[in-house]
Design a protein that fits this description.
The complex is a heterodimer. Chain A is an alpha+beta fold. Chain A contains 5 helices and 21 strands. Helices cover 13% and strands 31% of the residues of chain A. In chain A, 54% of the residues are buried. Chain B is α+β, with helices and mostly antiparallel strands.
Chain lengths: 328, 289
């Protein structure tokens, strides 16, 4: 059990691949946004790469351990401390019963991942422990951690002690630099043909500011106006009044959803359907960049092919294996 | 129109949108659900999930198991294996939902919106005026005078898009602009040409005309209908609204509260599009109830 001394800004239980099989009823997959860092944390402590762990956003939790455990912290650097002493990132270490692990404000990146050998053991809902807090599903009673809760942890199958003192090879970690400017790769579609040439050129050559009103549902962007083709301006009235309106359709996770003139990148907890067009989609391999950026960071979008996007994901899949772990 | 050939577009590295047409029509939506049924039955390796919508199907796939081109090829083949639209039938459960028209709760929500966000005409009046009805009594008759087709689910868990099957009961309405910041759980709303039931307290944009005490989703899975799934409806189900007095509403609300409410659903029906088309040909669509 982990006793929640301080919950952090929004710390939630997540797993991979998340809640699969209920998307058509409106349930998002949820799961960790930076699944690269998340899987490496699990591998460090000997869990399956998708096992349930904690996603800590912007400001991390303070947790008291009620029994010995092996843990690892990856992703954003929240300056973890064990009983007030600095604890390592990207490295598994032992926490003794009674000790307190505290994560502070993210000083590099935005989302940290905490894996514990054995994994978080909250009851699965619809086959997953991932939290979808807007609808109160999964995780700790459907929501982010709250002060005073006891988070259940499963026993590690093979005895975790031997898993302490391992680290992720430096070159296999997501390259966090603290740079405010990000290049975000995008694949055109599904509705790229609703945007005219000038609109595409403007999208790909402008700075887009990440708004503070961004969360696990959507990342809102501020930038120049969009311009449209005849598909958007010359359509049946049932599509809706604004050029960005379309008859309700499904929303891919990662898609850039154009709500009027405001693009919103739909992420892990986003609605499954709606009535706005999606001119571009951020592929899965780029999600770690979204996860680790902060409000007022600046995005530049680069159009890549579907094949290139899938190659990028294959590369992350290759990285998220035991091969990337070494003894300290 | 309904496309001769489906159109495919990528949504990043793991999604494909399959468009079957670009109009609001029952026939097109029926086609969407028929194709979706075939996709599910095909158990094509690498296809993970599908989300059927009004005119299109969103497909998620594992590109390590099936490439984009192969998804397109397989889905196109399934589309062509379907046969003529008129021969299609789908299992269709019928749900009976008590609703209380022009209730005090949606009225209160409307008044809150007027006070805090923007003055507007009362929602039922908007519908009466724009649809050429004689008043609230006729609005309730027209709105409850048809079966509704569950055309799509999504946006929020359990939220339904309902299409009236009787053209004499079609209602249209603009959406709130700007949208509401909150809506009562169980609110019945009309927006565009669709009707919806709000599964929970959420923001919203549809014109509100009634409320049901019957939950259509339940994360706590208290009632029997939610033991299998947190959400009540599946695409292709139908809904019939039964006008209820305030006392009847309260009676059902008490049953729900006690945890022993039994959802009223008939599971013995198949929907034949040929029979539906034949019936449509016999009615005068210009008449209102």
């Amino acid at each position: 059990m982990l006793e929640v001394i301080k919950p952090g800004l929004e710390t939630s239980v997540q797993d991979l691949p998340g809640r699969i099989g209920y998307w058509e009823q409106g349930f998002p997959f949820s799961g960790p946004m930076d699944f690269w860092s998340f899987q490496l944390a699990n591998l460090l402590v000997g869990n399956a790469p998708g096992g349930a762990g904690l996603e800590c956003q912007f400001s991390g939790p303070t947790l008291r351990f009620q029994r010995d455990a092996v843990v690892a912290v990856t992703g954003a650097d929240m300056a973890p401390e064990l009983d007030g002493m600095p604890a390592p990132m990207w490295r598994s270490f032992t926490v003794r019963a009674g000790q307190t692990l505290a994560l502070g404000f993210a000083r590099l990146g935005a989302r940290s991942y905490l894996a514990i050998a054995g994994g978080i053991d909250t009851p699965p809902v619809l086959g997953s422990r991932a939290t979808f807090h807007q609808a109160g599903i999964g995780g700790m009673e459907g929501h982010a951690l709250k002060k005073g809760q006891a988070v259940p942890v499963a026993e590690s199958a093979d005895g975790a002690e031997g898993r302490a003192g391992r680290q992720v090879i430096a070159a296999r970690r997501p390259p966090l630099t603290g740079e405010k400017n990000w290049q975000i790769e995008v694949v055109p579609g599904p509705n790229d043909d609703w945007i005219d040439e000038a609109g595409h050129a403007r999208f790909l050559s402008s700075d887009w500011l990440l708004q503070a009103r961004s969360n696990r549902t959507g990342f809102r962007l501020t930038g120049p106006d969009w311009t449209f083709t005849k598909l958007a301006t010359d359509k049946g009235p049932e599509h809706g009044e604004h050029p960005s309106n379309i008859l309700d359709h499904g929303y891919p996770v990662g898609t850039i959803n154009l709500c009027g003139q405001t693009p919103i990148i739909l992420v892990n907890d986003a609605p499954s359907t709606g009535g706005f067009i999606n001119p571009y989609t951020v592929p899965s391999a780029v999600f770690w960049k979204l996860a680790q950026s902060k409000p007022n960071d600046v995005y530049r979008f680069k159009s890549i092919t579907l094949e290139a996007a899938q190659d990028m994901r294959r590369e992350i899949n290759r990285i998220c294996t035991e091969e990337s772990i070494e003894a300290v | 129109m309904i496309f001769e050939e489906p159109k495919f577009n990528p949504g990043g590295d793991r999604f494909i949108e399959m468009e079957l047409g670009d109009e609001m029509s029952f026939d097109l939506n029926f086609l969407v659900h028929s194709v979706s049924g075939l996709i599910r039955e095909s158990r094509t390796k690498g296809i993970i999930e599908i989300v059927p919508e009004l005119t299109s199907i969103m497909i998620s796939y594992d590109f390590e198991q099936i490439g984009y081109g192969d998804v397109v090829q397989e889905m196109t083949a399934l589309f062509h294996a379907l046969g003529p639209l008129d021969d299609l039938e789908l299992d269709s459960r019928m749900f009976y939902l008590p609703i209380h028209y022009f209730d005090e709760w949606t009225r209160g929500c409307y008044e809150d919106y007027c006070a805090k966000i923007s003055e507007k005409e009362w929602d039922p009046q908007v519908l009466v005026r724009l649809n050429g009805l004689s008043g609230l009594d006729q609005l309730a008759q027209v709105h409850s005078g048809t079966d509704y087709w569950v055309a799509a689910l999504g946006f929020y868990p359990g939220l339904v898009s309902l299409m009236p099957l009787d053209p004499r009961c079609r209602l249209t309405a603009p959406k709130y602009n700007p949208p509401r910041t909150w809506t009562h759980k169980g609110t019945i709303g009309v927006g565009g040409a669709l009707c919806s039931i709000y599964p929970d307290e959420t923001p919203g944009g549809y014109q509100m005309i009634a409320r049901t005490p019957v939950p259509i989703w339940d994360p706590a899975q208290r009632l029997a209908a939610f033991k299998q799934s947190l959400a009540l409806f599946r695409p292709g189900d139908r809904v019939r609204f039964i006008p209820a007095t305030r006392d009847e509403y309260d009676y059902v609300a008490r049953q729900v509260e006690a945890g022993d409410y039994l959802h009223n659903v008939a599971e013995y029906q198949r929907f034949s599009i040929r029979n539906y088309h034949a019936w449509l040909a016999t009615i005068d669509e210009s008449v209102r109830f």
